[in-house]
Design brief:
Blueprint lengths: L5 E5 L3 H11 L5 E5 L2 H11 L3 E5 L7 H10 L8 E5 L4 H10 L3 E4 L4 H52 L6 H15 L4 H12 L10 H4 L7 H7 L2 H9 L10 H5 L20 H16 L10 H10 L7 H10 L4
């Protein structure tokens, strides 16, 4: 149930306040009252009303001065102000508009007109407030997503600092994987999750000891057993984080193979998530192109020959077709 609109009635004359109260009582509003300008400003600051009915002719601080103060306050500047006056004077109305009044109501009041105008103004103000709230939520959501992505990029930078041998690899394979995904029409949130998963594909290596991860020569069988744990480490690290759960397919499954000989689960065929099947090719392509301490990068023709040879073994045949088309080797 929505909260009742707050109407602040400002009039130094008790009869004037009571007249407006009688017209608005029972119309679904929460009514508040102020008998002078300073009290009106205090009440407005405390309540942030949906509309202020402001008498023009008040001793001391008149309605024009009150309106000027309201418009100077960032928290109250957008509150609709309707000036109430017995003066049907163009100069008064122009001055009211100049200080920020939204509308005027003349005394004596027309009951039907008064209620209709206040209802319209409060409804528009609530609608505008709702739009502002939605815009603020959207902005907060956008900023949160940016902070998430900044955190991911920080993790990738930490990996690059630790393992200079693969520096820049995550960004390169992410760019290629997204091209592959876009080539088959993937977009929106699904593409965003693929991007995050590709960036984080090796985040599980944070759990691999330096003696194994940074070993310059070949790994022993025992060391490979430890190395092959990194997809599980990635899953254990990312699964508890709600916004990264949809991005888990690549970090967890990028070492699975089409023929079921991969790890950590030994998945085969279409049981392997499609994004991980695409990524696996991008990962091998980039790794073989890159120089390593124990070998030089392969020529592209040799890599393409290797990828074609692995169709139905390491790689999904459909994913290879997409890859070859995207890199212009189909």
């Amino acid at each position: 149930m929505s909260q009742a609109s707050i109407v602040l009635i400002v009039d130094d004359n008790l009869m004037g306040r009571e007249a407006l109260e009688s017209l608005l009582y029972g119309q679904g509003y929460t009514l508040a009252f102020a008998a002078d300008g300073p009290e009106a400003l205090r009440q407005a600051a405390a309540l942030t009303p949906d509309i202020i009915l402001l008498d023009v002719m008040m001793p001391g601080m008149d309605g024009f001065e009150v309106c000027t103060h309201l418009r100077a306050d960032p928290h109250l500047a957008e509150v609709p102000v309707v000036m109430v006056t017995a003066l049907n004077d163009t100069a008064v109305r122009l001055r009211g508009l100049a200080v920020g009044a939204d509308d005027f109501i003349s005394k004596p009041f027309n009951r039907v007109e008064l209620r209709a105008r206040i209802k319209t103004i409060t409804r528009l103000n609530r609608y505008r407030s709702l739009l502002d709230e939605r815009a603020a939520l959207q902005q907060a959501h956008t900023e949160l997503l940016l902070s998430y992505d900044a955190t991911i990029e920080g993790w990738i930078y930490a990996l690059d600092l630790r393992d200079k041998e693969t520096e820049g690899h995550s960004l390169r394979v992410t760019e290629l994987t997204m091209r592959l995904a876009e080539a088959v029409g993937i977009s929106g949130d699904e593409l965003m999750h693929i991007r995050r998963g590709a960036l984080l594909h090796d985040v599980g290596k944070l759990g691999i000891p330096d003696a194994i991860l940074l070993k310059p020569g070949k790994l022993t069988e025992e060391e490979w057993i430890v190395m092959r744990r990194h997809p599980q480490y990635a899953y254990d690290m990312l699964a508890p984080i709600p916004f990264l759960r949809p991005a888990l397919d690549i970090p967890y499954c990028h070492h699975e193979k089409w023929d079921g000989s991969g790890y950590p689960q030994g998945l085969a065929g279409e049981a392997i998530p499609f994004s991980a099947r695409l990524f696996a090719i991008a990962d091998v392509w980039d790794a073989l192109r890159s120089d390593r301490p124990y070998r030089a990068g392969w020529p592209e023709a040799q890599i393409l020959e290797h990828i074609r040879a692995q169709v139905g073994g390491h790689f999904d045949p459909k994913a290879v077709e997409i890859f070859l088309r995207v890199v212009g080797a189909a």
